[in-house]
Write a structure and sequence with these properties.
It is an enzyme of class 5 (isomerase). The protein is α/β, with parallel strands linked by helices. The chain contains 8 helices and 8 strands. α2 links the parallel β2 and β3.
Length: 215
């Protein structure tokens, strides 16, 4: 699956870019929420997500890069999020947070920073619908892909299979036509791409090309 990251969209033409994704073969709208505390950047808040939700016809894949994400679980459910991913590193009681997300009717995701070992999810993997694996350091778009990601995907896939879980593996950061197939072959199910899609001359065609390559 392909999830274009709206962090790379043109905020002056957000409706246009959301509708472009609607009309493409993309699967999800990926929405990064940054608080300037957990990551050194601020993206957009509730009103912008509300505007995206108004026009989006595909599932909203919301990635919270914030401290104390529990405060906003209910809010994002009300905004219409389909998936809500919280960072492992930001959760004191991960199992409880996952249950709270599911209680609001959303799919529960856990995001991992590049340095975080996937074995830390061993006890909760069966409760996780999506693992959003950061293949760049979170906080900014357009960064270079971290090559160690492939080994992490393979290790995570092995854990999912060993535990009999149905968790999807999502890769976020530095995804291009150069690594899409290798990521899929390593075990990725969802590819998040921002700059690569929105900086291209024909984003709809680029989305289709990514799907074809990873196919």
């Amino acid at each position: 699956m392909i999830a274009p990251s709206l962090l790379a969209a043109d905020f002056g033409n957000l409706q246009r870019d959301v509708e472009m994704i609607n009309n493409s073969n993309a699967d999800w709208h990926h929405i990064d929420i940054m608080d300037g505390v957990f990551v050194p950047n601020i993206s957009y808040g509730i009103p912008v997500v509300k505007a995206i939700a108004k026009y989006a016809t595909k599932p909203l894949d919301v990635h919270l890069m914030i401290v104390d994400p529990d405060r906003y679980i209910k809010t994002f459910a009300e905004l219409g999020a389909t998936n809500l991913s919280v960072h492992y590193e930001a959760c004191t009681h991960l199992h409880r947070t996952l249950q709270a997300i599911k209680a609001e009717g959303m799919k529960a995701g856990v995001a991992l920073n590049p340095h975080t070992n996937i074995m830390l999810l061993e006890d909760t993997i069966k409760d996780i619908d999506v693992v959003c694996m950061m293949s760049v350091n979170p906080g900014f778009g357009g960064q270079s892909f971290i090559e160690n990601t492939y080994d992490k995907i393979r290790a995570l896939k092995a854990l999912i299979e060993r535990k009999g879980a149905k968790t999807l593996i999502e890769i976020d950061g530095g995804v291009t036509d150069k690594n899409a197939k290798a990521l899929k072959d390593a075990g990725a199910d969802v590819l998040v791409a921002g700059s690569f899609i929105f900086n291209s001359k024909d984003p709809v065609k680029t989305i289709q090309e990514l799907k074809d390559i990873a196919g």
